[in-house]
Amino acid sequence: MPTMGALESRFADIIWSREPLASGELVRLAGEALHWKPTTCYTVLKRLCQRGLFQNEGGTVSSLISREDYYAMQSEQFVEETFDGSLPAFLAAFGSRKKLSQEEAEELKRLIDGLRR
């Protein structure tokens, strides 16, 4: 699974939130949001296209994978690599430093109930 750095993620969010969009419009938006020069935008776009996340066809940029799918796969990979694939171990580690509000706990219970096979 290809990964992105923080600035690449911000650039990708511009695409995901407005796709499909003209590459020139992407350059303008990235210039405003990230203060990047056009050459930087096109270099990062090319890199993300080579990683299979986006495509630039005929000057129109669109995603090959949705934001939700990308971050879901990144989360799965993190749990797999860091917690030997154990979601309970991840939640235990997360909960040891950050306590959940009652609303968050209820939301997690609903999510778990929806994921049961």
* Global outline: elongated
Please indicate the count of domains: 2
Structural class: mainly alpha
CATH topology of the largest domain: Arc Repressor Mutant, subunit A
What is the C-level CATH assignment of the largest domain?
Mainly Alpha
Distance between the termini: 26 Å
- Give the strand tally: 3
Q: CATH H-level name of the largest domain... which superfamily? A: Winged helix-like DNA-binding domain superfamily/Winged helix DNA-binding domain
Share in helix? 55-70%
Q: What fraction of residues sit in β-strands?
A: 5-15%
What string gives the helices and strands in order? HEHHEEHHH
If classified by CATH, what would the architecture of the largest domain be?
Orthogonal Bundle
Strand order of the largest sheet: 1-3-2
Low-confidence parts lasting 5 or more residues at pLDDT below 50? Answer: none
Q: What do the pLDDT scores average to?
A: 91
Supply Rg: 18 Å
The biggest beta sheet is recorded as: 3 strands, antiparallel
Helix count, DSSP H or I runs of 4 or more residues? 6
Assembly level: single chain
